[in-house]
Amino acid sequence: GAVVSQHPSRVICKSGTSVKIECRSLDFQATTMFWYRQFPKKSLMLMATSNEGSKATYEQGVEKDKFLINHASLTLSTLTVTSAHPEDSSFYICSAPALGGGELFFGEGSRLTVL
Amino acid sequence: QQQVKQSPQSLIVQKGGISIINCAYENTAFDYFPWYQQFPGKGPALLIAIRPDVSEKKEGRFTISFNKSAKQFSLHIMDSQPGDSATYFCAATLGNFNKFYFGSGTKLNVKP
């Protein structure tokens, strides 16, 4: 089946630095990808929709200048957490819908820890 | 307004028992209802899904029951196994798959 790969799976950074997380669709093209944030023992919170060839669409309350999303190609979307702070520590998960719908494939997630 | 409500928050079942997780939704326009299984430190994986034109779908030990009039759907895990211990999320979306609305999750613990 289709696979979505995320990298890195874990990252630790210092407060004030920026971190980039990559999301790749390995065997299918994804014009749209979704970025979620998940707090411990909580559900997935949609942060933004990444659109190939256009600007990302952010959910209400998500700072677009802090969470930069770039859909560089039909198989790659990146999330950059800028000027990270400890409160940005979380589990970030990307997903991509199968072409024509029918299923949403999730990446393995990226655990960000900001010291 | 929470679009999808899930219960219970946690569930303990003995090996071989039946695990039942319930979800209710608000938007009658939703037309795809998947269930996802998530193990600690991993991304969610699709377990089983149903569309509102059927009342039940079974895949192996997993069954979705769907009640369109009540706007409710549930996941039944028959013969529950310790390996089923995970967090389960229900979800709902419109046909364009533009946005998935997730339930709050149920942490299932199957005791041997």
Please describe what this structure looks like.
The complex is a heterodimer of chains A (115) and B (112). Chain A has 115 residues and is mainly β. In chain A, strands 2, 4, 5, 6, 9, 10 and 11 form a seven-stranded mixed β-sheet that branches. Chain A has a four-stranded antiparallel β-sheet with strand order 1-3-8-7, with no helix packed on it. Chain A is globular, with a radius of gyration of 13 Å. Chain A starts with a strand and ends with a strand. Chain B is mainly beta and 112 residues long. Chain B has no helices and eleven strands. In chain B, the strands form two sheets. In chain B, strands 2, 4, 5, 9, 10 and 11 form a six-stranded mixed β-sheet that branches. Chain B has a five-stranded antiparallel β-sheet with strand order 1-3-8-7-6, with no helix packed on it. In chain B, strand 9 and strand 10 form a beta hairpin. Chain B is globular, with a radius of gyration of 13 Å. Chains A and B meet through strand 5, strand 9 and strand 10 of A and strand 5 of B.
